[in-house]
Amino acid sequence: MMPGLVKETVKTLGVLAEAEEAVAGLYKVFAEKDASEQAFWSGLVNQETAHAHNMRSMARMLEANPSAYLPGRPFNIAAIQTFIRGIKENIARAVKGEISAHNAFFVAKDIEGSILENRIHEIVRTDDPEFRKLIDVIVGQTAEHDAEMKKKIAALPA
Fold first, then answer.
1. C-alpha distances in angstroms, 107 versus 5, 13, 17, 62?
2. 20 to 30 A Cα–Cα from 101, which one of 24, 51, 62, 91?
């Protein structure tokens, strides 16, 4: 990968890591507000935090060996930052009690089903097995999160 693209992709991975941390922050508030689902939300906090760590590891791998990577789908950093602002707005709403325990699942389902969450595997192309493993963990857990939200929503009283 060309040096300019490496720098841009590393920056994008850093902003994506910030997005994962913002999502973890929202889920942490949901855990604090809903004692009956605290373990569920706390588990998601841990996984989202791990996703952020994985993205930073991926950035370091890319920087260390750029020739092993090809550019993939570009991500718009401004769009990611808008996503983060939306998450932070939801955190403020949740802290104030404006998002009910019931609605928290709908908010999380929208997050987990977002293009941002589901397209991370397209950011670069590589055969690097370590990089692929980190991507696969993020993609797999995101799919699990989405499925879990759908199950939680289906089980909600009408």
1. 33, 24, 20, 33
2. 51
Model pTM score:
0.93
Q: What are the pLDDT digits (tens) for 23-49?
A: 999 999 999 999 999 999 999 999 999
At 56, list the tokens. Answer: 């930073």
**CA 27 – CA 24 distance, rounded (Å):** 5
